[in-house]
Amino acid sequence: MKNLIQWSLVILAFAMTTPAHAASAKGKAPAKQINASEDIDTLGGNKELMEMADKIKSTSRSRIVQERIVDRRNTLEFGLSYGSVFGGDAYLKTQAIGFNVDYHITPRWSLGVRYYDFGSSLTSEGQRIFDEARASYQAGGRATIVDIDTPQNATVAVVNWYPIYGKTSFLDMGVTQFDLYLLAGGGNMTLSSGNTSLLTAGVGLGAWISRHVSARAEVRYQKYEDQLVTGSRNLDTVVGSLGLGWIL
Amino acid sequence: MMKSLFTFTLTTALVAGLHAQASAAERVSASAWAKSWVQSLNDKSNIQAFSTSSLEKKVLGTCEDCENKNAMKKARQLFAQGDYDAAIKTYNEIPRGNTYWLSAVEEKGWAYFRQNQFEKALAQTKSLLAPQFAEISNSEAYLLQSLTQLKICDYKGVFETHQIFKEKQKKRILEVQNLAKTGWNDDLANVMRKMDKFPLTLDEMGDSVQRLPLLLYKDIEFQKQALRFKTSQHAMALLGGKYPRLQKALDKINQDSFIGMKDRVQELAQEETNENFKIIQKLNLVEVEAIQRVHTDMNLSDSMYAESKFQKVGDDKLVFMDDGRPWIDELDKFEVSAKTCAQGIRRKM
Asked: Mutate which of A7, A12, A33, A61 to test chain B, going by most B C-beta atoms within 10 A?
């Protein structure tokens, strides 16, 4: 009798774990009838049991592990950016076109070289001072100097660290992965008065649109010294830029 | 880690499958075929009796999506031979979005289960029972998850799975059972009204797929009868009372195909109901076992449980927590870590 029970258990266990696709060929089975209230409604949903089960220490946790869309190990990225300089000389409005090359050592670290070509124009305040000086000179007064030192270009080397990643979906068109990164570096800046050293640090967002196309938004603090007639001056400016890149 | 969320709907999930399916074979319009047949009647030298046999052969006679069909066949053979590693490898060849993909994921789950790799089996059911698929997944997927949770003594998980089963599958199970009796429901009527191109795709089924037998649209016999029904219906409408003898013959074909179609739906619905019946019985057995174990395990101390940890992943991978609402690109990317049963306790099942 005991053997019979054991065999029944073995058969039951096997039947439980035999999926339909692996079940042996069967003839036409008699029609079964499912009784919703007796067979389905009794399943789950018992609060007391749930509370008791909650006290038992065995649990399972799950997470999602995905590949990066872009393999950024030992990879080069070329980029083009456009941005504005905020702060600095009150008489100047400065824009920057940037050319970037980044060498991605790992998905977390990259080294980059950036060249910025600056273009400046006078702010309304600068224009007013300039116009006043010219008017004063034309009226036979003393010629005052509008004292500005315009940035011409800069070359900086930076190190980028990508500690945070995420992904987003735009209008259900597809999923884009991105990294938030910090950067720091230094280099040389050419001003109308000559060369000066430049230090920079910032934060950016790099979105990996496809295997070869990236987009970056970056805000960078930069510090340099310009030369005025009255002497040298420390400038603290912020550069905000948007760019597109090509990943090899 | 950050995830900004735009909800992916069931439709989005299904669309992925549609494209693969639609491009797989040349599809023929039933209305266009009927029109050309009616036009051919005007050419006295080329009068043809109404027969869809050559069309059926052309549209339904060729192996559709052969590569993946064969991969599934091979994987099932390997599974039956007990070569689970090779079976899993073959199941992995089915691309996501293919109509065989859900079956492949489920069967892969069973292969892991047979290998006693319960965490990997659960990782598969996480995809199958994700909100995108919970209503169209086979009820066997719920059994796989429930049984696996019982194996790792996650009794709370067992009860939760059964609750979800009840919420997501009950309506569908009863609808399919009803179809087994009647062979007809509003959803089938909707599908029949819209369908025109053959072979059928998931696209034609729309949301009705949730209330019709699984993979009905892939069934050759159903498609054959549906093709006859639609072409004869269009032909009768186009003839507009001309050729009374031909009309009578068409009417007979139309009625016969309608009955044939209903019979096939009934047959498939009954097969599925029989399968559902077995699954529900097994789920009830799992629940009884879980209830019994909850009472015995409640007072076991924490130290008796061994906790497994997630494997460390490199910088090349992204890790997101499972919030129960996975994105479409996250399906089949689950990893599960379990704090399994208390050690040193002998159980029989």
From this structure: A61
